[in-house]
Amino acid sequence: MVSNEDASAAIGELIKTQSAEVRQTHASIPLNIDEAFACGEADLKGKVVVVTGAGSGFGRGFSLKAGQYGAKVVLSDLRKESVQKVADEIVSKGGKSDHYCLQRDQVGGPSQDRHARDTYGHVDIVVANAGIAEPPTARFLDFRTENGEPTKPALPTIDVNLIGLMYTVKLAFFHLRENPAKDGKSIVLLGSMASFMGIPGAPAYGATKHAVLGLMRSLYFDARVYGIRINTVHPFFVKTNIFGLIPTLLLTGIPLPTVDDVVAAMTAAACKTSSNGSAFVVDFKGILEIPFSASASEENGGYYAIFAQRAQGALSLGKYVFDIVAAFAGVLSGRRPLQ
């Protein structure tokens, strides 16, 4: 039988190996925590920021930091007491905040962004942070049967981490598109180390976090068309409220990033104006920005880069044609004069 010490050592080596591989990514950029926070200090004042899963962990940390930098922060969470405490803390320090408590079937629903728009008039930044670990009661490889047949897998992790996230992102595009500002609009998605590697015993969680990276890289093209920046943040193991007992025991003595490290990466992802389509990795060595160009580099023979350029051009042309048609439709209906 493997001891906790042996398991911890094995996991420690795995983390170091994976970190080294990620940090060798083409064109990656190290970013220190002070530089990351400086982006927020310069950009967040007066911005309307929506944060999901804001009652604890990364969401709480980022919300407090955004409030400190002068943002108007709209918090959503399933736990009313937790999100109320965060809102009260922001206000007690001179910031502006409102909160919206969701029912479980409202996660990713239209109410949270609409609440922000109705309260402050528009939305500038959406941070899709809400997520759960893979519950031990919903194991994917559960071989129990009903009437001799395997049972349908329980997929709460998919529902929250992927389906809920996709609802949130679509609504973010809807409201950010209506914001007339030419810049400063952004979306941040919370991924994980599991966006790059597998986690034993958590296939649903790993699938959702791989999907986060794929979703961002696919929506990057649309985001550029609408003047929106979209980035992801990928923490390696960090002790938060979804951290279970077994990971805690197995990771004892292994150097880990802190919640503040992740909050700094979230701040850069939201506010660093030169970053679009980037994946911000956070591990025990600090923050590493992997730009979109790394996924479509000339090292791949140039094919992906050419495809990316053509896809961007097609989407830009499509929006241009749509805008012209919409403008003429408005003129013909008498709703707007021809400029």
Report on the architecture of this protein:
By secondary structure, this protein is of the alpha/beta class. The chain has two domains: 4-294, NAD(P)-binding Rossmann-like Domain (Rossmann fold), CATH 3.40.50; 296-339, no CATH class. Helices cover 47% and strands 15% of the residues. The protein contains ten helices and eleven strands. The chain has helices at residues 4-23, 33-43, 57-68, 80-92, 111-120, 156-178, 203-225, 245-250, 259-271, 303-332; strands at 29-31, 48-52, 72-77, 96-101, 125-128, 145-146, 149-150, 186-190, 229-235, 279-283, 286-290. The strands form two sheets. The chain has a nine-stranded mixed sheet with strand order 1-11-10-9-8-5-2-3-4, sandwiched between helices. A two-stranded antiparallel ribbon has the order 6-7. A hairpin with a 2-residue loop joins strand 10 (279-283) and strand 11. Helix 3 (57-68) packs parallel to helix 4 (80-92), helix 3 (57-68) packs across helix 9 and helix 6 packs parallel to helix 7 (203-225). The radius of gyration is 21 Å and the shape is globular. The termini are far apart. The model has no long low-confidence stretch (mean pLDDT 82). Keywords: Oxidoreductase. GO terms for molecular function: oxidoreductase activity, acting on the CH-OH group of donors, NAD or NADP as acceptor. Belongs to the short-chain dehydrogenases/reductases (SDR) family. This is Short-chain dehydrogenase/reductase SDR family protein. InterPro entries: NAD(P)-bd_dom_sf, SDR_fam.
Order of helices and strands: HEHEHEHEHEEEHEHEHHEEH
Percentage of helical residues?
A: 40-55%
Structural class: alpha/beta
- Mean pLDDT, as a whole number? 82
Q: By CATH's scheme, which homologous superfamily of the largest domain applies?
A: NAD(P)-binding Rossmann-like Domain
Task: Supply the number of structural domains.
Answer: 2
Strand content: 5-15%
Structural shape? globular
CATH class of the largest domain: Alpha Beta
- For the record, the CATH architecture of the largest domain stands as 3-Layer(aba) Sandwich
Numbering strands along the chain, what is their spatial order in the largest sheet?
A: 1-11-10-9-8-5-2-3-4
Pfam family, one: adh_short
GO molecular function, one term: oxidoreductase activity, acting on the CH-OH group of donors, NAD or NADP as acceptor
InterPro entries: NAD(P)-bd_dom_sf, SDR_fam
Family: Belongs to the short-chain dehydrogenases/reductases (SDR) family.
